[in-house]
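Per-record layout

source: Photinus pyralis
name: CCHC-type domain-containing protein
length: 351
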Amino acid sequence: MNTTPTNTVQQSLNTVQHSFIIEAFNPSTTSWARWVKRLEGAFKVFNTTDDMKVYYILHYMGASTYDILADKLSPVEPESKTYIEIIQTLEHFYSPSPLEVAEIFRFQSRKQVEGESIQEYCHALQKLSINCKFGNYLNNAVRNQLVFGLQSKRIQTRLLETKDLTLEKAMEVASSMEITEKDIQQLQHKGTNVHAINYNFKKDTKNTHKGEDTSAAAKKTNFQEKKKINTGNFNSNTNIHCFRCGGNHFANKCKLNRNITCTSCGVKGHLRKVCMKDKQVNNVEEILQITSESTEYRKKYSITLKLQNKSVNFEVDSGSAVTLISQQCYRKLFATHALQCTDLKLFSYCE
């Protein structure tokens, strides 16, 4: 028996047609129109005849969709309808004609949201424009809304200054500038300077004001503030010096008896080797003289840190053993994080 090329192709198609499979229609993942397009594409691939299309679509649309179709056509059976009638019936149910004005309003109200890339924003606009009936004005409408809704004022300004701006050119320029901005932010983050702040204190007993008790007057001191900026790595082991004993630790960790008396100045609380009376500080870049220490008026240094991707402003205190946030800050930014118990007890150094 001789086999012609035509017969071979037909036999191959008949064999493939038996494995014709497509997932059931799911309105939560795709639209009815797009599912029908995929089904019709399969019809062309497998050379499905017109009289078989009705049975294929009724089979592959799924049980829930078939029930909806049967209810819409009742008392007529779905199998008695043509392929086109079945498609149109479900099209009216799943994709009713939207209101053009409402769709345009939704399109023009769309702005770029936080964390959304230029490409994602443009895709969202193109999706919203489907039912706006812009026609030949479609690309210009998407271009205009793309420019108007950008978060970056720098990119927006560049696009507004560009002559003969098309949608393709706007996407090219905006995407390029977006990548550049991200690279610059990463470089700036890596090159952030570390600030080291040291304080030299000198007790002053001559500034006691009348009407103040002895304990209040004792809290007032003269001090020199030395601010030194390091652009290299900050090594805590070599830059921390206890002003009580000179050891490589913070003063609040010092085990020296606080009642010990300096043999140089006669003041209690530190040793002679760290006494400021015998030493002259030479590496001071900026000195601020304050005659009376006050927690209300003294200059404070702060730094912004990232906690759980949220920016929090902290006051710098090199003598503090812990980093704390207020109860108000916790309730505002981290209320979803559960608090844990601790045996740690905190005491104010000033009291």
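summary: The beta strands are 194-203, 221-230, 287-290, 302-307, 310-315. The chain has 13 helices and five strands.
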